[in-house]
Amino acid sequence: QVQLVESGGGLVQAGDSLRLSCAASGRTFSSNAMGWFRQAPGKEREFVARISWKGANTYYADSVKGRFTISRDNAKNTVYLQMNSLKPEDTAVYYCAASQVLTTTPTWYSYWGQGTQVTVSS
In whole numbers, what is the pLDDT of the chain averaged over residues? Predict the structure, then answer.
């Protein structure tokens, strides 16, 4: 069992940066791949980034590539999403999730946080 709690969201202006954190409880954190997803109003949840168990393998959605960076600290049971050069279209609720499979598909993620709101004004 893994419990996830996101933090770090907020209201920023276009071009600003934010760092989201996702704190995990449970001894199995390091054995899970971790992902970040987001959902804007009226839209489906979409993949943002994912990272492998030890952090060596990362993958990003085209829409955030070069602007966002996913990382993890297994000693702190935490995964991060550094978001730079934010755009209004990045506005969404951001969720972290844990999976036994290294994938971008939401249905393979067994555990989800409650989400944190990111709002980017133009």
Answer: 95
